[in-house]
Amino acid sequence: MSRETQVPGAGALPGGAAGRQRDLALADISDAATLLAPPTAGRPPGPPPAVPMPLPMPAVPSTSASVPAVAATAAPTTAVGAKARPLGRRFTQAAVVVLLMVQVAATYRGFFAGTAFLAPLGGAVLLAGVLAAATSNRLKIDAIVAVAAGGWLLFALLALFGARGGAAPSAFAGALREGWADLLTVGLPADPTGELLLAPSLLLWAATFTAVALALRTQAVLLPLLPAMLAEVLTLIVTAAGERSQLPLTGCLTCTALVLVLLRASQSGEADRQEGSGPSASASVLVLGLPLVAAAATVATVGAAVLPLADGDGRFDPREHRTPPVEATPLLDPLAQVQVELRTNPPRSLFTARLSTSTGRLPVDRLRIAALGDFDGATWRDAGLFLRAGSTLPQDGPAVTVPTAQVGLDVSIEAWDRTLLPQVGVPVTLHGREISVQAESGAVAATSVPRDGDGYQLRAEVATPGAEDLRLARAAIGPATDGAVALPPGLAPELTQLADEVMGTAATSYDKLLALERYLRDPQRFPYDGDARPGHSYGAVTRLLDAGRTAASGTTAASGERPGSGTGTGSGSDADRRGYAEQHAAAFAILARTQGFPTRIAVGYLLDEQSGDGQGAFHVTTRQAHAWPEVALAGLGWVPFEPTDVSRLGLALPPVDRATSADTGQQEQSVDVVTPVVVPQLDPAGTGAGGGTGTGRSWTWLGYAAAVAAVPVLLVALVPVEKRRRRRRRRRTGTPTTRIEAAWREVGDRLAEHGLTGTAALTPRQVCGHAGALPGCAPAAHHLEALAPLVTMALFAAAEPGEDDARQAWHLTDLTINDLGRRPGHGWRGQGWRGNGARARAALDPRPLLPRSRSDSRSRSGRPRDVHEVTR
After folding, report:
1. How far, in Å, CA of 260 to CA of 278, rounded?
2. DSSP line for 634-689
3. Cα separation of 441 and 424, whole Å?
4. Which strands make up the sheet holding 349-357, listed edge to edge?
């Protein structure tokens, strides 16, 4: 019987049901455009029955003597597959769009604290993508818009405000009115609350829904990128103050966008070729395009990080153009309150502080409540704005690159009459109270005055520099400290001259500061007096320093005269050179600024070992109130100095008019005696052991680089795993005919890996001939010659092959695969690096796993391609 006659439909022949079953099983593994004629098992001998056909297909002439051509008709599954395949590609594009929008959502990293924001924002992206994919091809535009709006409303109420129960609708309405404004005024990094997540979730939901709908409903290559790029631009504007580099994330986003463009471009080109311009090459486009896309994105990202391009300092930040709402709260000058608290008798209990540290050694000996860096010649103040903050506190001070220690501070309030809260080092997180933060100074203020019994938990980082770090330290420069160097007009030239004399001979910057500290702490030159005249202006500091300088010049060690006794009045009198922490800290800060050091005055409380329990808990009272200067040093942050004799803290000298010419011992007998504060002794060389490091950003970049490098390595490692899984599925799935055809496809994949390509129109016998001519395929040619008749019989014989035939086909397939790439005349141990290298390259070759279009299943002449060339 000639096979060049027309073949009737499968259902018209005897055994047509079996033919359709075979076609369906073959479609599970192959997406060939034309299935071969169904088997004719069970048909009686003789010519086929005459069945009229509405649209007879002409016979396809044979090009091989061994395997005649077969006339083909489109099976019912072909029409279904032709529609399903493009739809599957469009859903693949929709998945890429969702991945792209998830990366847009990740851009809020740095704006929000931690990674908790990814769950609600990523959930909004995923739900919007699924909803858009389910409705875009079934509803009209107005219905799609209604579904999108209703879906987001339901998501926001349940996911963002569902935990608030009956208050959810009112909270949602308030956030809808004020959400955008809150994003521009909250302190960063912000807690991911429902009020702050509402606006970003709406933006991401709308952009994702629109982009997925455009990917499914349109053929324009770039159109689905438009909403994603708009969302990314708006997100970058809102997160401009997040202080996190978005460059690696932007590189990933760019790569994903290029992949989407590549997928849509290959689909568009395939559609054009299906109209008559030739066969599709979408698989080739993907094979060549994907590596180019990855390379382009990597080069662009690395180049932007290395080349001297814009560093983002001039980036537009809308927060700079919106003044946050500030609730004016009357605050007493914290520096002026130091003397008031020292005079409180009996001392009043304020709070109990329990400290813990990552190093096992206490790295601090004081707690700070305010840092005053703005000086106008009369008063020191903190002129920055306090912004509402969450549990993660914003930081805008000088960078710390030396080792740090993690310090935990647990405060229990006893009697506190102010909103400023005690803290230490560089505050990182605070739990237990609603607060506002001044990011530049690090000051933390409660939204209301704490009551007795209230408490909070603070975690901070404290620099622990070593001796070499201190020796190499220099004054910090930059926007964070520029305002702490300026001195207002009115400075007496004598003060600059004094600073030059005291600090000029020191070798290093740190030694200069230590020299100034020792000069002001000298009790003979500047006696400590808790009842001294208050003040910290230019006038008060000049009066103190002039008196001390004059007294020192009139005193000699040999004479033993009491300093100041020769003047009695004027700038060198005892009254003028007496002072306490307020004047000493102000004098240090002003004199250091004359030498170019950024300074500020910190106000707080010293820790007293006598009130501690030895386990890190300290009871703090008003008699421990104190003020001290801090200097910003590059890499060390704000470093405290102590120009006050704290061993005499709280000591009050008798008035000057009661002083006599008696010696100092007689005078000291009339002094009000107080119990001195014993400050914990710190390691002068720092406590770097066990502390954290200040190289977090370097490790972050290394992490990004490792992640980028791991992606292609992981993909390459998965190639052999997927090939093995596919081979196992092909071996076990379907009828014997289907499994024999699958064995031939498996052989075709492996031959392509070893260089046998371009076999689209070859018969199995011709493939055997070509394989024998290639060095990498020749060792397996004899196995191919044994396998070729089995494949030909399965495709064209009247009888259905049996289980033994299928097992024999796969046995020959295994032998073929084992011999491919083998060097003739060598055992497996003698293959050398060349033979094993060829087999390794073949195992990692991803081309057999790439999808092929349906039009690739036909040759350029219109004949069915050989079975090993169809899509897997």
Report:
1. 24
2. TBBEEEE---S-GGGTT-BPPPGGG--SS-HHHHHTTSB--PPP-PPPP-TT---T
3. 12
4. 426-431, 455-463, 404-413, 349-357, 617-621
Segment-wise mean pLDDT, segments of 10 residues, the chain, 872 residues = 38 41 40 38 44 40 37 36 53 91 91 89 94 87 91 93 89 88 83 92 96 91 91 86 66 84 73 44 53 63 55 63 55 83 92 89 91 94 85 87 94 92 94 89 91 94 93 92 92 93 93 96 90 92 88 48 39 76 96 96 92 88 94 95 86 63 41 55 43 43 56 74 87 89 87 74 80 84 87 84 90 88 58 64 79 45 38 36
Question: How large is the angle between the packed helices 194-217 and 225-238, nearest 10 degrees?
Answer: 160
Residue in 425, 462, 461 with CA at minimum distance from that of residue 444: 425
* DSSP bridge pairs for 367: 605
* pLDDT tens-place string over residues 803-834: 998 899 999 989 988 888 776 655 544 444 45
Task: Report the pLDDT value the prediction gives residue 246, as an integer from 0 to 100.
Answer: 65
Question: How many CB atoms sit inside 10 A of residue 642's CB?
Answer: 20
Q: How far apart are CA 330 and CA 779, in angstroms?
A: 92
In the chain, what's the furthest Cα-to-Cα distance? 145
Q: Which helix (H) or strand (E) segment is 209 a member of?
A: helix 194-217
CB atoms under 10 Å from CB of 116, counted, come to: 12
What pTM was computed for the model? 0.60
CA 399, CA 397: separation in Å to the nearest integer?
6
Residue 599 forms beta bridges with which residues? 631
Provide φ and ψ at 334, rounded to 5°.
Answer: -65, -30
According to the model, what pLDDT value does residue 759 have? 56
Amino acid at 619: H
* SS3 call for 644: coil
Q: Of 341, 349, 345, which Cα lies nearest the Cα of 619?
A: 349
Whether residue 694 contacts residue 404, with contact meaning beta carbons closer than 8 Å, is answered with yes
pLDDT tens digits for range 467-505: 999 999 999 999 889 999 999 999 999 999 999 999 988
> DSSP secondary structure string, 481-547?
TGGGT---S---HHHHHHHHHHHTT-SSHHHHHHHHHHHHH-TTTS-B-TTSPP--SHHHHHHHHHH
In the block, tokens 């076990």 appear at: 732
| CA dihedral sign, ordered 25, 29, 33, 36 | negative
Residues 378/537, Cβ–Cβ less than 8 Å: yes
**End-to-end Cα separation, the chain, in angstroms:** 32
Strand partners, 170: none
Cβ atoms of 126 and 94 within 8 Å: the answer is no
